[in-house]
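User: I'm curious what two different proteins look like when written out as structure tokens. Can you demonstrate?

Assistant: Sure. I'll show them one after the other, since each token string lines up with its own sequence. Here's the first protein:
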Amino acid sequence: MQKEKYARTPAWIIARYSRIWYLKKENTFTFYWYLNNIEDDIKIGLVVLSRLRKMGWISTETNQKDKRKSIYRLIRPEQIFNRMGREELVVNEN
């Protein structure tokens, strides 16, 4: 169910999103920036960025200088809330 998708978002994921937003806003960042500024270990960092991507809270693009690396950009909180509201309306209509 889509409705439960956001209700089950762990607080620690939301906290990481908030911290990144506070530091970077809509500017791009790399995994290495994340590790140095959010102070998570590598495993947690990979999980956080993967979950944010799957939830649609972050976009990724390939680094043109090194195709093995990704460049990340957070989706604006307003866009996330608007999407959540639209999905909530659809669930309630069914």
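Here's a second, unrelated protein for contrast:
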Amino acid sequence: MQRYSMEMDDETKKPSFWFNVDYPTNIVKLHRDNCIHCSPEPSKFKKVNRLDRNGGWMEFSSAQDAKEYYEEKEADKVWLPCKVCKPLVSKPKRHGS
């Protein structure tokens, strides 16, 4: 049974995480939506929220959902969470904002 969700709770809210599936390199990379290396743009052979010949960019509401998707659908690829945005590290809550 699938437990992961690629749908956002609020249609106006930006996705929290992007999962870059790259078939030519056999690498799957997870990014936060504000990461400088996150660029979910469609191309001729790579789509957004759909996999094509070279892979695709998939949006998820949580890092856990992305990890579950990876384990179920892309486990034969190399899993590399981004070293810049560190999507698996919890961000501290800001007080007084």
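A detail about the second structure: The helical segments are 63-73.
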